[in-house]
């Protein structure tokens, strides 16, 4: 039985939407799109127009609307969609035009169309488009069954570069499906496939099948609500974000409680699942309710207060007011501010101290909704009791990833007793299944039996272990790590031991006094030992650590400006600034073990007693999703915490087995790797076997088979027990690298345009070739390499860049006996990297000219008194010269003016987009036939892309 085609999926989806009362409209091209938009906008604004005795816009008035909508970025257009436009009619009167009804979201005009042709850099036909009030707000990209869903995502990214413009810049959501898997995501180009989501029911059961997804997600009221209420305009990044289903259901539950009852409740969403976005949207929508006077977001520590304020500001500047002190809080409570962020300590002072409470007496009866962050902390003592006693018309909602149950409470109270029933659950097992957070690899280091058990000897052994295995754990420093220890004295001893070992990685440490006590102190040790005591000299020790830090980074921190020091460490651990040297390993006692979110942190070392929520909170610092290479959060325990780990995970997974959360042991992964490699080598005994593959299908089969090995190799190599040269892995590291090279060779040929001719039935008729994109379904064979993801990010290291290569070249000594090997090692390093292999020949030529042919001068430049080198400048000059030579050669080969090629490349450098029309115009002057001109255009563009890949450096 043949596979269901893309056309069949498309027709089935349209039929489903028509059954759901969507109007089907035939829109062939942009001209029809605009005329349909005019009719739908008039229909949507019928009552407004009737107030002026009108039923339609004049052409001149509609042109004003189009001019207004055309201006601005995609982000600014998203704002326009949600605003009213004051249109001046030809009569001089003003009508407020609405593009989207966000308040009554069902009362919009819903249409569906398909195969709309859009003229951009290429003419493209889009699969299925949902129009709301005539604007294309949802674009659906379909792939036939069997095609990897990521290819639909990649095609949308290509559309961003080739054709999306005009009204299509108003797209809010994309949906991708191959019939059996369906995902949605916001119109945020290049955010990554990791930020596409399943839709689920309230119990987190996903709707993957396209028909089921469409029936639920495309319900007109649901879709209208999602676009009208649940897309967030992130002001910090100037991008669109859409809530995931569990966030949607949580906010809906809170809104329902506020509107229909006075009951409290809490949300149990696992750490790392986007609690800030959920709480922001809940606070924002609750604040819009007429009978709610204030929404207060309450946190329990100053650093979380600052962090939350910054995150809220990123969503919507001015939407919230932070409060730096209790006086300021009292003022804000009297102001028009609808949303206030404060700490539980300041709020307690406001209600319990007469000086403050007397000034807010008049608002104690106001209807106030309080949202408590991390409601497993600090809401079980007098502070919480004082607050709810003072405000007698308040409704409480808590957010936590680790609630307090009978098993992990200290004083007998549970989260349910304080906040009422759990309104929505999204547990760590759900988040891992959805790939919204990562699972954990937990390893236990038991030490060397030959080492003396004395404390310092044990600590030295642990420090050496960390340094010896750091690169393996962090992919050669691409990620970073925390080391959590029991107390400040222990941290200081560890720091001195690390320093004595003269590490090649950058190590820092941070500790301070606890801002407030909490039950975590007694139960989990989250803050124990973190008070800096002047009498014990710990402040001096901290300053000594800061001095090392200042020397390492050229900073000037002291204990007097500790907050700035803390913030600087925060930034360096997150590796957010390219010009900022990162911190590789940070020693901590309690700080950074809660509330610290960094995608670049993948490893936690633990020499500290932990259990229950403190343990899971700390472990969860490592499990933020980033890319294919970061497949889990790694935790190395130097204490026997296994029973605590199992108990914690079982408690916060609602009784599920820890095996669902924690990665299998090394032996299990090793066995699977052995099975994969054995099966693979049966098909491809030697790397040279790959050279014999002829058809695109055979090459695709090889890519898929070796890709599985690449993924498992990336997983197994992070285990501490993994040894690169182990004889029992089934495939030696040299074999892996050889096959890896063949894998990349196929990709290079494919990426450079060297695709095989497609079977006749898949070729595009000549008369249609100018109408469809190269990504059109007709243009893709059932066996094409276009259908697969090469997972190149698994084969690239962030640290292998121009600076790293220059450092390796600088270390060369052309007179040394090992020079040929070290020189070849540089080239091999580049060849092994997915992104740099195209530049290996260029660097080889650079070394030939500047080292091989000029040894004395190279060595003399290395010995300059000031320690500087002009090597980077020489490389830049060399790249510029070679690029010019390559352009001139291409111009000569194709008999084109080099100025045309330079114009094309300069436009690409500026826009990061191809503009083939520049080459097309030049080819018209050559008076070639239509077919020959197209083939020539394709050939030249492929060669230009190769120039871009070779000579573009970040």
UniProtKB/TrEMBL annotation:
Its EC number is 3.1.21.3. It holds the Pfam family T1R_D3-like. The keyword ATP-binding applies. Keywords: ATP-binding, DNA-binding, Endonuclease, Hydrolase, Nuclease, Nucleotide-binding, Restriction system. Residues 256-404 form the Helicase ATP-binding domain. GO terms for molecular function: ATP binding; DNA binding; type I site-specific deoxyribonuclease activity. It catalyses: Endonucleolytic cleavage of DNA to give random double-stranded fragments with terminal 5'-phosphates, ATP is simultaneously hydrolyzed. GO terms for biological process: DNA restriction-modification system. It comes from the Bacteria. It is an enzyme of class 3 (hydrolase). Signal peptide: none annotated. The keyword Nuclease applies. Belongs to the HsdR family. Subunit R is required for both nuclease and ATPase activities, but not for modification. The type I restriction/modification system is composed of three polypeptides R, M and S. This is Type I restriction enzyme endonuclease subunit. It comes from Phocaeicola plebeius.
């Amino acid at each position: 039985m043949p596979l269901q085609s893309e056309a069949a999926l498309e027709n089935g989806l349209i039929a489903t939407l028509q059954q759901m009362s969507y109007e089907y409209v035939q829109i062939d091209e942009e001209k029809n799109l605009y005329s349909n938009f005019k009719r739908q906008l008039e229909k949507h604004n019928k009552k407004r127009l009737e107030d002026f005795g009108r039923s339609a816009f004049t052409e001149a008035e509609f042109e004003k609307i189009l001019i207004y909508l055309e201006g601005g970025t995609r982000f600014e257009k998203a704002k326009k969609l949600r605003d009213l436009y004051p249109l001046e009619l030809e009569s001089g009167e003003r009508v407020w035009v609405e593009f989207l009804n966000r308040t009554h979201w069902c009362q919009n005009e819903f249409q569906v169309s398909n195969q709309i042709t859009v003229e951009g850099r290429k003419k493209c036909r889009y699969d299925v488009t949902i129009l709301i009030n005539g604007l294309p707000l949802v674009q659906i990209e379909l792939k036939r069954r069997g095609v990897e869903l990521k290819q639909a995502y990649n095609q949308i990214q290509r559309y961003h570069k080739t054709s999306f413009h005009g009204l299509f810049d108003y797209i809010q959501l994309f949906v991708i499906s191959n019939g059996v898997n369906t995902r949605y995501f916001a119109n945020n180009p290049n955010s990554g496939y990791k930020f596409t989501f399943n839709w689920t029911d309230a119990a987190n059961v996903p709707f993957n099948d396209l028909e089921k997804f469409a029936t639920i997600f495309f319900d007109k009221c649901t879709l209208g609500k999602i676009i009208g209420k649940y897309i967030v305009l992130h002001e910090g990044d100037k991008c669109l974000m859409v809530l995931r289903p569990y966030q949607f259901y949580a906010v809906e539950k809170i809104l329902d409680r506020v509107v229909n009852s006075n009951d409290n409740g809490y949300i149990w969403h696992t750490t790392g699942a986007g609690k800030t976005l959920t709480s922001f949207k809940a606070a924002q929508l609750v604040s819009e309710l007429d009978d709610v006077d204030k929404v207060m977001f309450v946190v329990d520590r100053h650093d979380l207060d600052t962090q939350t304020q910054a995150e809220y500001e990123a969503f919507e500047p001015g939407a919230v007011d932070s409060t730096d002190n209790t006086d300021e809080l009292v003022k804000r409570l009297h102001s028009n501010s609808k949303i206030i962020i404060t700490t539980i300590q300041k709020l307690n002072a406001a209600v319990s101290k007469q000086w403050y409470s007397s000034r807010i007496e008049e608002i104690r009866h106001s209807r106030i909704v309080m949202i408590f962050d991390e409601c497993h902390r600090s809401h079980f003592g007098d502070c919480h009791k004082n607050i709810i006693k003072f405000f007698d018309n308040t409704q409480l909602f808590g957010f936590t990833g680790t609630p307090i149950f009978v098993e992990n409470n200290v004083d007998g109270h549970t989260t349910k007793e304080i906040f009422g029933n759990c309104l929505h659950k999204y547990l760590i097992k759900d988040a891992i299944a959805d790939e919204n957070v990562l699972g954990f690899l937990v390893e236990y280091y038991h030490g060397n039996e030959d080492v003396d058990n004395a404390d310092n000897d044990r600590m030295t052994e642990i420090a050496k272990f960390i340094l010896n295995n750091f690169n393996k754990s962090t992919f050669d420093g691409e990620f970073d790590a925390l080391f959590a220890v029991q107390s400040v004295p222990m941290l200081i001893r560890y720091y001195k031991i690390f320093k004595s070992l003269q590490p090649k990685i950058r190590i820092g440490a941070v500790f301070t006094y606890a801002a407030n006590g909490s039950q975590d102190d007694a139960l989990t040790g989250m803050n124990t030992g973190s008070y800096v005591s002047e009498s014990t000299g710990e402040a001096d020790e901290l300053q000594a650590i800061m001095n090392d830090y200042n020397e390492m980074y050229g900073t000037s921190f002291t204990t007097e400006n500790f907050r700035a020091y803390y913030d600087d460490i925060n930034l360096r651990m997150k590796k957010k600034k390219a010009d900022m040297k990162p911190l590789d390993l940070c020693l901590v006692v309690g700080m950074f073990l809660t509330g610290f979110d960094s995608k670049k942190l993948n490893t936690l070392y633990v020499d500290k007693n932990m259990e229950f929520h403190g343990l899971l909170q700390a472990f969860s610092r490592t499990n933020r999703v980033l890319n294919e290479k970061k497949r889990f959060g790694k935790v190395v325990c130097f204490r026997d915490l296994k029973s605590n780990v199992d108990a914690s995970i079982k408690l916060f997974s609602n009784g599920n087995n820890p095996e669902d959360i924690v990665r299998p042991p090394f032996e299990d992964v090793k066995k699977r790797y052995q099975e994969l490699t054995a099966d693979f080598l049966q098909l491809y005994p030697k790397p040279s076997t790959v050279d014999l593959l002829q058809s695109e299908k055979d090459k695709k089969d090889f890519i898929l088979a070796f890709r599985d090995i690449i993924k498992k190799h990336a997983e197994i190599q992070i285990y501490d027990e993994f040894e690169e040269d182990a004889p029992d892995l089934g495939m030696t590291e040299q074999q892996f690298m050889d096959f890896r090279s063949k894998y990349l060779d196929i990709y290079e040929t494919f990426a450079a345009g060297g695709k095989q001719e497609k079977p006749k039935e898949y070729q595009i008729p000549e008369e249609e070739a100018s109408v469809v994109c190269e990504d059109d379904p007709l243009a893709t064979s059932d066996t094409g390499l276009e259908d697969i993801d090469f997972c190149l990010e698994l084969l690239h290291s962030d640290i292998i860049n121009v600076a790293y290569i220059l450092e390796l070249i600088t270390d060369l000594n052309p007179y040394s006996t090992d020079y040929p090997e070290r020189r070849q090692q540089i080239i091999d390093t580049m060849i092994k990297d997915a992104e740099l292999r195209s530049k290996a020949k260029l660097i080889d030529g650079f070394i030939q000219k500047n080292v091989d042919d000029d040894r004395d001068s190279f060595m003399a430049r290395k010995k300059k008194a000031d320690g500087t080198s002009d090597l980077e400048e020489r490389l830049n000059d060399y790249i510029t010269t070679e690029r010019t030579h390559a352009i001139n050669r291409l111009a000569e080969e194709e008999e084109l003016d080099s100025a045309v090629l330079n114009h094309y490349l300069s436009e690409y450098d500026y826009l990061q987009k191809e503009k083939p029309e520049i080459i097309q115009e030049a080819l018209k002057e050559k008076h070639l036939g239509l077919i020959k001109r197209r083939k020539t255009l394709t050939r030249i563009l492929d060669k230009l892309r190769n120039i871009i890949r070779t000579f573009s450096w970040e």
